[in-house]
């Protein structure tokens, strides 16, 4: 699970280590990456909204 | 040590170069103006900051590229490095642009916040775009007028030498006081227009059915010119914006004069007008409002803009003519002018249309008759 999160974060940033990529493509299941990706996408948007609301105060 | 010295000198030269270069570019009309409001100054300095950031990035990136091409060329026996992925380098070249973008976004957002804060204005002006002119209403002041292109047709057709402010001059400019916060409310009667004055750093869309907000506080008296910045049809290039900024006392005097002129105009609706008077006034109104579509000779531009000269449907049916001018024609570009023109102007322009260009009906439409119809 933690590894999936780290891989999704690396994907957000746009840079991933080759060894890690290989590992993801051999051991991980696609559905877990998709779900974690969607959840973290939502989390990212919520964080942005929170920052914007704080800044607007 | 010596290298540092070279860099410092280069930096100083670049900076002083920026100042003189900026002046030169502006004089040549190549750069955006510094403008005459605090916001426009901020916008200009943002623009220059980001421009120089881009210049530095360009020099560094292309410098590194050309240096590598030259230094490691094959004739000198350079061998290509063969490796795949380098996480550190990738992280660096992702992080640096990210930081640069955030660095640009912070001051830009600060300025944007100021631009959007139209609260606590001293004066509200409603700006309405129409094909193809601007209407200005000073809210709560009962002052309302249309600002149309003033460049003579002979200059446009090329029969006359072009004037200094060719296509950037109007019959009645928007007059604003200096040093006061003026809220600009923008909308449109027909299609999307955009009210743009570079010196004020205002470029705001005027959209039918919406009211957009913007504001200005002008620091220096003067005349500032702009244009419609959203393609809006045939005469898009012929609806300039002119703002005249004057000192507060001068502005108050102007406003008082406009108000008394408006009440005089209203009083004029009660008396009986002669045909000659109406024709004279009607010709003015026709020239500034109607001629863009129906042409100065009344021939129109069929089929979109019908001819008025010899138009039997109008000439035989006076009521139909009044209804057309007052209420417009749904589904065509013809707007209704019941709210934009005064009873005197409406009566004059209808009388003019019924008697000019050989129409010769001899009809006189009295302002009082129009006033009655408007009251219904």
Would you write up a description of this structure?
The complex is a heterodimer of chains A (57) and B (376). Helices cover 86% and strands 0% of the residues of chain A. Chain A has helices at residues 2-13, 18-27, 30-56. The model of chain A has no long low-confidence stretch (mean pLDDT 89). Chain A has 3 helices and no strands. In chain A, 4% of the residues are buried. Chain A starts with a helix and ends with a helix. Chain A is mainly alpha-helical and 57 residues long. The radius of gyration of chain B is 29 Å and the shape is elongated. Chain B has 3 domains: 18-74 and 82-115, Helix Hairpins (Orthogonal Bundle), CATH 1.10.287; 123-264, Cupredoxins -  blue copper proteins (Immunoglobulin-like, Sandwich); 269-375, Cytochrome c-like domain (Cytochrome Bc1 Complex, Chain D, domain 2). In chain B, strand 6 and strand 7 (202-206) form a beta hairpin. In chain B, strands 3-2-1-5-8 form a 5-stranded mixed β-sheet. Chain B has a 5-stranded mixed β-sheet with strand order 4-10-9-6-7, with helices on one face. In chain B, helix 2 (38-71) runs antiparallel to helix 3 and helix 9 crosses helix 10. Chain B is an alpha+beta fold.
């Amino acid at each position: 699970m933690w590894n999936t999160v780290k891989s999704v974060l690396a994907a957000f940033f746009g840079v991933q280590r080759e060894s890690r990529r290989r590992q993801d493509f051999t051991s991980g299941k696609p559905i877990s990456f998709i779900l974690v990706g969607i959840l973290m996408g939502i989390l990212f948007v919520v964080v942005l909204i929170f920052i914007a609301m704080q800044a607007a105060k | 040590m010596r290298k540092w010295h070279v860099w410092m000198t280069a930096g100083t030269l670049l900076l002083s170069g920026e100042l003189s270069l900026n002046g030169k570019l502006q004089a040549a009309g190549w750069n955006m103006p510094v403008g005459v409001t605090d916001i426009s100054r901020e916008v200009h300095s943002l623009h220059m900051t980001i421009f120089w950031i881009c210049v530095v990035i360009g020099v560094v990136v292309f410098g590194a590229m050309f240096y590598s091409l030259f230094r490691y060329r094959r004739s000198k026996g350079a061998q290509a490095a063969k490796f795949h992925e380098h996480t550190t380098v990738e992280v660096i070249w992702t992080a640096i642009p990210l930081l640069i973008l955030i660095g640009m976004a912070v001051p830009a957002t600060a300025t944007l916040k100021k631009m959007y804060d139209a609260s606590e204005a001293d004066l509200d002006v409603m700006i309405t775009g129409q094909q193809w002119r601007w209407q200005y209403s000073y809210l709560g002041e009962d002052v309302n007028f249309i600002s149309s292109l003033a460049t003579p047709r002979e200059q446009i057709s090329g029969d006359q030498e072009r004037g200094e402010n060719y296509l950037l001059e109007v019959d009645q400019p928007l007059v604003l006081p200096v040093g006061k916060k003026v809220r600009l409310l923008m909308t449109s009667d027909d299609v999307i227009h955009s009210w743009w004055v570079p010196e004020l750093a205002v470029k705001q869309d005027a959209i039918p059915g919406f009211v957009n907000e913007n504001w200005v506080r002008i620091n220096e008296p003067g005349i500032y010119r702009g244009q419609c910045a959203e393609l809006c049809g045939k005469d898009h290039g012929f609806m300039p914006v002119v703002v005249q900024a004057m000192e507060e006392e001068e502005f108050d005097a102007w406003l008082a004069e406009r108000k008394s002129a408006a009440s005089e105009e209203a009083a004029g609706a009660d008396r009986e007008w002669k045909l000659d008077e109406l024709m004279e006034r009607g010709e003015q109104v026709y020239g500034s409002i109607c001629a863009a579509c129906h042409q100065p000779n009344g021939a129109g531009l069929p089929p979109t803009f019908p001819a008025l000269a010899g138009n039997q449907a109008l000439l035989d049916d006076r009521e139909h003519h009044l209804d057309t001018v007052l209420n417009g024609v749904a589904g065509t570009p013809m707007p209704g002018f019941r709210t934009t023109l005064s009873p005197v102007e409406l009566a004059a322009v209808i009388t003019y249309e019924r008697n000019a260009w050989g129409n010769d009906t001899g009809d006189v439409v009295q302002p009082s008759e129009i006033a009655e119809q408007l009251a219904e």
